[in-house]
UniProtKB/TrEMBL annotation:
GO terms for molecular function: purine-nucleoside phosphorylase activity; uridine phosphorylase activity. Keywords: Glycosyltransferase, Transferase. Coiled coil: none annotated. It comes from Soehngenia longivitae. Its EC number is 2.4.2.1. It catalyses: a purine D-ribonucleoside + phosphate = a purine nucleobase + alpha-D-ribose 1-phosphate; uridine + phosphate = alpha-D-ribose 1-phosphate + uracil; a purine 2'-deoxy-D-ribonucleoside + phosphate = a purine nucleobase + 2-deoxy-alpha-D-ribose 1-phosphate. It is an enzyme of class 2 (transferase). The lineage of its organism: Bacteria, Bacillati, Bacillota, Tissierellia, Tissierellales. Residues 17-227 form the Nucleoside phosphorylase domain. SUPFAM superfamilies: Purine and uridine phosphorylases. The record marks 218 as: Important for catalytic activity. InterPro entries: DeoD-type, Nucleoside_phosphorylase_CS, Nucleoside_phosphorylase_d, Nucleoside_phosphorylase_sf. A purine D-ribonucleoside binds at residues 5, 180-182, 204-205. This is Purine nucleoside phosphorylase DeoD-type. Catalyzes the reversible phosphorolytic breakdown of the N-glycosidic bond in the beta-(deoxy)ribonucleoside molecules, with the formation of the corresponding free purine bases and pentose-1-phosphate.
Length: 233
């Protein structure tokens, strides 16, 4: 059964899926890490592939930018295609001065300035957290591969260009490691459906140091987080 955003049929997608924001990063992973990858989606050029990695079936699919986009794709993957483990692999802007370009961050929790959780009509503020099962395994894999990681809280922002030039400093004071745009919705959707989700990020730019990587580097060079995520199948 296809959806308005995904042409895959039931069974085309593995129970574990990697979710880069950039569909070209999904293609890069399929081409360079998966054995016998088969493309299951091209709708809106949001490429999706299923193959095997070290004998285990795994999928990868782009999600686009922002909470609304990953909210749609992750919901459909969970409820229409039976995905059980959703691992976002993305980029972020570091806001702590001890983080450098290419450092890997694992998002234990996600704060947000989005109103995404309003749909649940909760009587308070919802803390969106990762699956401990995936988090624990990812940290273990990183240690085995000798890949340094930082585990902590991240911010999923609705705004890339903010009119408030003081907000980063305030999030810094709350020990937020980096800013991205998708994890909060992924964690909400996964927790509501009682499945597993995790966000693994590579620092693509440092907001405090005014450093950044190129688009090509973001597409093809962030391989350490990919190596960690692929072992979670």
């Amino acid at each position: 059964m296809s959806t308005p955003h995904n042409s895959a049929k039931k069974g085309d997608i593995a129970e574990t899926i990697l979710l880069p924001g950039d569909p070209l990063r999904a293609k890069f992973i399929a081409d360079n890490f998966l054995e016998n990858p088969i493309q299951f989606n091209t709708v809106r050029n949001m490429f999706g592939y299923t193959g095997t990695y070290k004998g285990k079936r795994i999928s990868v699919m782009g999600t686009g930018m922002g909470i609304p986009s990953i909210g749609i794709y992750s919901y459909e993957l969970i409820h229409f295609y039976g995905v059980k483990n959703l691992i976002r692999i993305g980029s972020c802007g570091a806001i702590q001065d001890d983080l450098n370009l290419y450092d890997v961050i694992i998002g234990m929790g996600a704060c947000t300035n989005s109103n995404y959780a309003h749909q649940y009509n909760l009587p308070g503020t919802y803390s969106a957290i990762a699956s401990f099962e995936l988090l624990e395994k990812a940290v273990s894999v990183a240690k085995e591969k000798n890949i340094p990681v930082r585990v902590g809280n991240i911010l999923s922002s609705d705004t890339f260009y903010s009119a408030d030039d003081t907000e980063v400093e305030r999030w810094q004071k709350m020990n937020i490691l980096g800013i991205e745009m998708e994890a909060y919705a992924l964690y909400c959707n996964a927790n509501f459906a009682k499945v597993n989700a995790l966000t693994i990020l590579t620092v693509s730019d440092s907001i405090v140091k005014k450093e950044e990587t190129t688009a090509e580097e973001r597409e093809k060079s962030f391989t350490k987080m990919m190596e960690i995520a692929l072992e979670l199948a």
